Each structure stands twice: as C-alpha cells, then as structure tokens.
Amino acid sequence: MKKRQPNLSINTTRPALRGSKLFLGCFFSVFLLFGSVLFVVFAGLPFYRVSTSRSWSQEDCKILSSRVESHRGDDGIVYSVEIEFEYEFGGQKYTSDRYSFSAASSSNEGPKQETVRAYPAGSRRVCYVNPKKPSFAVLTRETTSDMYFGLFTLIFVIVGGGGIIGVLVWK
To answer: DSSP class of residue 139?
Structure first.
C-alpha cells in the first residue's frame, strides 16, 4: 500500500500578488505626486500667470537696478536676472523685482546678460501690474523656454498615472 504524501505546497500567489500590487501602487503614486508638484511649480503656475496677466494694467516704470547674479548650483555656477523697478498704480508707488513669471536660473550667462543690457538702470519701460494685487508686477509677461522645459515633468505624471491604472486593472 502506497502511502499518500501530504500536500506541503503553500498557495502564496494571492498574498504575494496583493503585496506586489501594494508596492507598485505606492511606487507609481510617488511618481505621480512628484511629477504633479513639479508640473505645477515649473509649468502650470507660470503658464497660468502668463495667461491671466493679459488683462493686467500696463504702467510706466523706471528700472532702478539691473544685473546678472551668479549662484552656486549642483553642477557649477548658474546665473539669474535681477532687475528692480518702481512704478505707480492707483496713486501709490511700488517696487518689484520680478522680471518674468519664471524664476529659473541657468548655466548659460549670455542670454541673462542680453536681458540685463535691454533693461539698463535709469531707463523707462512698460511693466504689467496685477490690478487685484498692485504690489505684484512683472516686466515681461511672455512665456520663456524654461516654462516649456517644465512640461517634461509630465513624463512623471504619465508614468505614475499609467502605472497606477496598470496596477488597478492587473488581475
């Protein structure tokens, strides 16, 4: 008489699958969250401000100072435009230091120097003032290349969102 062997295999597919799905769901959630925050900061908010500034008041302003600042970045020295200007709105004087809606620095000093040369101290220019918040003004309301570079953060959103959908439909 043949002795029957007990079935010693453990069915681990369900708990292991659940654990894998949980891990992947968390992993892709980090991608989605990270990408969403980066998108809002580097592209969404600047594009939104460019769009809403089309209705802002155009005012005469005087450039008080204009220079290129250098900073230590992760990969060496980076440069940014620092322009301070004054303007009047509603009978009150204001100052601002916002050149554009992008605050990005870059390792390429040339374009920053060109911008500074276009806005020399003492010159008069048009600035755009937010009528709802007159202390917020900008010299240029155009889109910049670094705003478009911010669209690359959507890759993280797509990978994260696609990964989460993939985990949810995974049987």
So the answer is: S
pTM, to two decimals: 0.71
First to last CA, the chain: 43
Q: Do 85 and 125 contact (CB within 8 A), yes or no?
A: yes
Question: Across the chain, which distance is largest between two alpha carbons, in Å?
Answer: 107
Tell me which residue of 116, 115, 138 sits closest to 66, measured CA to CA.
Answer: 116
What 3-state class would DSSP assign to 128?
strand
Is the separation of the CB atoms in 32 and 160 below 8 Å?
yes
Strand order in the sheet with 92-96: 92-96, 76-89, 57-73, 124-129, 137-138
Q: What are the residues facing 73 on neighbouring strands?
A: 76
Convert the pLDDT of each residue in 108-137 to its tens digit: 788 888 988 999 999 999 999 999 999 999
